[in-house]
Design the sequence.
């Protein structure tokens, strides 16, 4: 698939959105920015809520693809998650359908499978088709987003790559993140692959770098052209010395979702 020229980036003011604003243009994309929070230095950015259907449809109009990062990224009340992540994602897909946009990259999450026990040996053994076991309302909303993407592919022919993002930061800050870290550079590589791969239909991929301690299978991500270059292991010694190895008997460390799997969810995650 030819690289899309103009891409709508929702959630452009957030942490991941800010990173991608700096990295994706190098792949030739012209970004149209959308966020509920004004973006300093970006006078043309669309400042609106995902509930503003008119503003959202106007933002989608004329773009070649969408990278949908907007929404609540931590656990919150059901009402807040419903409005931002469920209704908001539906509004985005409806706007794309109405404006004829054929490709969306959806920011799903590893928390769709949060209650899956983590591999003990960093074997990367958890497959993409492992049964979903969301660990929070947030994780549940990402399951909805994946199902919505499947529906809009089957019913309307809108292609989506749902990326179950691990933790995309400049460097990992916990021992858990050593297994799920997605470097910003690899994040941009993955989004570029998701935007340009041929015939994805609805494809679900895990979003992590090529970490030595990787917990899940990256084969579907590699199949769409993702070639991760980074490994979190360079940060391992410092983090393990400070925090210790993960404890399989600790309910906040035994599953893929980490402290999201505790009641209430604990931070940092």
Sequence:
């Amino acid at each position: 698939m030819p690289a899309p020229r103009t891409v709508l980036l929702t959630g452009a003011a957030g942490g991941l959105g800010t990173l991608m604003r700096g990295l994706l243009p190098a792949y030739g994309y012209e970004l149209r920015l959308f966020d509920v929070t004004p973006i300093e230095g970006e006078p043309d950015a669309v400042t609106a809520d995902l509930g503003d259907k008119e503003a959202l449809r106007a933002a989608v109009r004329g773009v070649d693809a969408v990278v949908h990062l907007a929404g609540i990224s931590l656990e919150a009340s059901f009402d807040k998650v419903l409005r931002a992540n469920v209704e908001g994602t539906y509004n985005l897909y409806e706007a794309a359908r109405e404006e004829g946009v054929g490709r969306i990259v959806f920011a799903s999450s590893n928390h769709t499978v949060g209650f899956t026990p983590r591999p003990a040996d960093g074997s990367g053994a958890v497959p993409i088709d492992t049964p979903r076991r969301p660990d929070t309302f947030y994780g549940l909303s990402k399951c909805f987003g994946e199902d919505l993407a499947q529906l809009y592919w089957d019913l309307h022919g809108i292609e989506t790559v749902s990326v179950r993002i691990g933790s995309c930061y400049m460097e990992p800050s916990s021992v858990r993140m050593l297994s799920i870290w997605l470097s910003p550079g690899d994040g941009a590589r993955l989004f570029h692959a998701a935007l340009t791969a041929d015939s994805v239909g609805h494809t679900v991929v895990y979003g992590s770098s090529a970490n030595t301690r990787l917990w899940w299978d990256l084969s579907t991500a590699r199949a769409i052209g993702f070639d991760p270059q980074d490994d979190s292991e360079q940060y391992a010694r410092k983090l393990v010395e400070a925090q210790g190895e993960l404890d399989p008997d600790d309910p906040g460390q035994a599953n893929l979702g980490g402290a999201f799997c505790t009641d209430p969810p604990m931070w940092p995650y």
Observations:
- The chain is about 35% helix and 15% strand.
- Residues 13 and 41 are 11 Å apart (CA to CA).
- The chain has one domain: 6-261.
